[in-house]
Amino acid sequence: MIGGIDPADVRITLQVATLATMLCIIFGVPTAWVLARYRFPGHAFVEALVTLPLILPPTVVGYYLLRTFGQSSPIGRFLDEELGVHLVFTWWGAAIAASILSAPLLIRTAQAAFERVDPELERVAATLGRTPVGVFFAVTLPLAVRGVAAGIALAFARAAGEFGATIMIAGNIPGETRTLPVSVYDAVQVGDIARANATALLLISITMGVLLFFTWATLLVAREQ
C-alpha cells in the first residue's frame, strides 16, 4: 500500500470508470443524437427513461441489476450456464452499474449540444453526397464536440465516484471489486481517517484531472476549427 491506499483499488476504479464511459459513449451518443434530431411518439417517455437513473437512489439501481443478473434470475442463469459470463461480484458488473448511472449525464449534455447544431448544415452536407454517417462525423459531431466531450467527462467522473450500486452488485472484495469510493467507506468504518482522507483526495484528484483534460482538449479542438 502507498499512504494506506491499495494500488489495486486505484486500478479497479480506473477499469470500472473507463469501461463504463466507453459503454456510455457507444450507447449514449447515438441516443442523444436521435433524441435531438427526431420527434416521435413516446419521445418524452424516452427522455424521462434515460434520465431516471440520475434521480433514482443508486442502491435501487444496484438492487434491480442484482435481481436481473443474479443466479436466481433467468438472465443470470443463461449468462452463467450458456456463456460462462459472471457479472455479480465482479468489476464488470460494477462497470455496468456505473454506466447506467453515468449515461444520463452524457446523454442529456450531448443532446443539448446536438440540438444547437443547425440542421441546415447537415442537409447541405447530405446534398454534397455525404452519407448519414458521414454527415454525423464530418458536420454534426465536430460542431457539437464541446458538449459531447463535457458529457463524456461528467460520465467518467460519475462512474469513478459510484458507490451505492457498486456495493449492491459487485460487493466489497479487496483486489477484485473494491473501488476508491468503497475504500473510503471502509476506512471510515474502521476509524482510519488518515486512509479515508488520502483515498478521498486521490479520487478528487483523478476526477478533477479528467475534467481539466477534457476542458483543455475541447478548447484546443475549438481553436483548430
Question: What does this 3D model show about the protein?
Answer:
It is a single chain. This protein is an all-alpha fold. It has a single domain, classed as MetI-like fold, CATH 1.10.3720. 79% of the residues lie in helices and 0% in strands. Helix 2 crosses helix 5. It starts with 6 loop residues before the first helix and ends with a helix.
Number of helical regions: 10
The CATH topology corresponds to: MetI-like fold
Number of strands: 0
Helix content: over 70%
Q: How many structural domains can be distinguished in the coordinates? A: 1
Strand portion: under 5%
What's the CATH C level? Mainly Alpha
Main beta-sheet annotation: none
Mean pLDDT, to the nearest integer, reads: 92
Oligomer: single chain
Rg calc: 20 Å
The CATH superfamily turns out to be MetI-like
Indicate the structural class: mainly alpha
Shape-level CATH architecture: Orthogonal Bundle
Shape: globular
Topology of helices and strands:
Elements: H1 7-37, H2 43-55, H3 58-69, H4 74-83, H5 91-115, H6 119-127, H7 132-160, H8 164-170, H9 180-189, H10 193-224
Helix pairs in contact: 1-5, 1-7, 2-5, 3-8, 5-7, 5-8, 6-7, 7-10, 9-10
